[in-house]
Amino acid sequence: MSEELKQEEALLEVSAEGASDNAAEEAGLALEAQLAAAVAELEKAKGDVLYAKAEAENIRRRAAEENDKARKFAVEKFARELLGVKDALEMALLDQSGNFEALKMGVDLTQKALVSAFDKFDLKEIAPAVGDKLDPNLHQAISAIPSELEANAIVQVMQKGYQLSGRLLRPAMVMVAAPK
Question: In sequence order, what DSSP letters do the residues of the chain get, joined into one string?
Fold first, then answer.
């Protein structure tokens, strides 16, 4: 019987070794499956990050293009309004009739069209009156001359100024009264 016991023990050892090998093999397979899932999830996350980067770059590029177009064509409506003024001036230059009054009337109508275009786009004239106080935010004194007016009062307007929607484009060039 001892021989039978030895055989039984040997079988038990072999089956125990096989069972532990099976458990280790199953644990290894489970770890490999977890690793494969983690690697797949990492690859998906990398793809999502690359997609998000590409999408952000496309949005930035489209915004830059729209900004360029807006800047490029911002004056389109204003330019369209000025085309009529240019056409009228060219017609006046081509006039060979010699009728001064008709030419003067045409130039007057052209100026009204220009003023209308300026008004439509909130381009305001800065035309200070003689005797107004110098406003350094709107006027630029180019010289001071002796005058009966108080110091820094406007004596003469050399060139009108302009504002676009409240923003100064060009100050009015003025001569002011010198201090007494």
Answer: -HHHHHHHHHHHHHHHHHHHHHHHHHHHHHHHHHHHHHHHHHHHHHHHHHHHHHHHHHHHHHHHHHHHHHHHTTTHHHHHHHHHHHHHHHHHHH--S--HHHHHHHHHHHHHHHHHHHHHTTEEEE-PPTTPBP-TTTEEEEEEE--SSPTTBEEEEEE-EEEETTEEEEPEEEEEEPP-
